Amino acid sequence: MDLTSRQTIQYIKQKYGFQMRKGLGQNFLCDASALDAIITAAGLTAESGALEIGPGIGVLTARLAAAAKKTVAVEIDARLLDVLAETLDGYDNVKIVHADVMKTDLAALIAEELSECNSVSIAANLPYYITTPILTRLLEDTSLHVQNIVVMVQKEVAQRLCATPGSKAYGALSVLVAYHCIPEIVTVVPASSFLPPPKVDSAVVKLAMRAAPPVTPRDERLFFRTVRAAFGQRRKTLINALCGAGLFAGPKDELRSIVASLGFNETIRGETLGLSEFCALSDALSAHGIS
């Protein structure tokens, strides 16, 4: 069956008495070209593995299964298990796991189910309400050895993921992404491409995972604490933001001295700093005993 067909989706809803839950961000994709963009960006081959988060009725899952050696999909909604059994009937290379992705050991799942694949990519049409927590978890989990993470997210979030220093969308999430990946907006997907249509447009983002971060801070934990503190109060100067967040508890003049030693103006704001500047700053703070 054509899972991008609105008629098919209505048929499934009626057959299973399925009502979409706004709380789970259930908006089903009806755009084949968006699926093509995701599959291409994921870089799948006949020897690749795919891990999908939130398969829904299996629209993307079926395309992943057709392109990859094996696909594992993690679905939290028990109501969709019978639906997926029907829509994915005929694909013997798909496994559906009923679980909450935020509580699942994804590295263990990949090792157990996709160990025979020569590479693994993650793909997902992420619910808006939990996009940032899921992405943060995926990026911070160093035990996940994946090639690409390709996600459909709210367009505004996509812009944040790919934002550069000094831009309005640039923030702590942008730094986290740049540290671990090379991000790229692949395509914009209008709200009309979903059933029911959300209130905003979406975008497909490819996060090509780096073999290693482009900077090597002395204390990675302090590096990200510094980043979060710098963006915690965007309208404040870097010095005031770090002090206001409690990251630097010493005399403000001492922090001014540290900032000046790095060649930064004391009125500089965190939103203008790139990876190398944040690394230099956190290293300087580490040298002064901050951890």
UniProtKB/TrEMBL annotation:
HAMAP family for this protein: 16SrRNA_methyltr_A
Protein family (similarity comment): Belongs to the class I-like SAM-binding methyltransferase superfamily. rRNA adenine N(6)-methyltransferase family. RsmA subfamily.
Keyword annotations from UniProtKB, A to Z: Cytoplasm, Methyltransferase, RNA-binding, rRNA processing, S-adenosyl-L-methionine, Transferase
A single MF term (Gene Ontology): 16S rRNA (adenine(1518)-N(6)/adenine(1519)-N(6))-dimethyltransferase activity
Residues binding S-adenosyl-L-methionine: 27, 29, 54, 75, 100, 125
A Pfam match: RrnaAD
Taxonomic source organism: Candidatus Aphodoplasma excrementigallinarum
EC id: 2.1.1.182
Keyword Nucleotide-binding: no
Name of the protein described by the UniProt record: Ribosomal RNA small subunit methyltransferase A
Compartment(s) of residence: Cytoplasm
Gene: rsmA
Function of the protein: Specifically dimethylates two adjacent adenosines (A1518 and A1519) in the loop of a conserved hairpin near the 3'-end of 16S rRNA in the 30S particle. May play a critical role in biogenesis of 30S subunits.
EC class of the enzyme, as a word: transferase
Superkingdom assignment: Bacteria
Catalysed transformations (reactions): adenosine(1518)/adenosine(1519) in 16S rRNA + 4 S-adenosyl-L-methionine = N(6)-dimethyladenosine(1518)/N(6)-dimethyladenosine(1519) in 16S rRNA + 4 S-adenosyl-L-homocysteine + 4 H(+)
The Ribosomal RNA adenine methylase transferase N-terminal domain, residue ranges: 34-211
Main location: cytoplasm
GO cellular component: cytosol
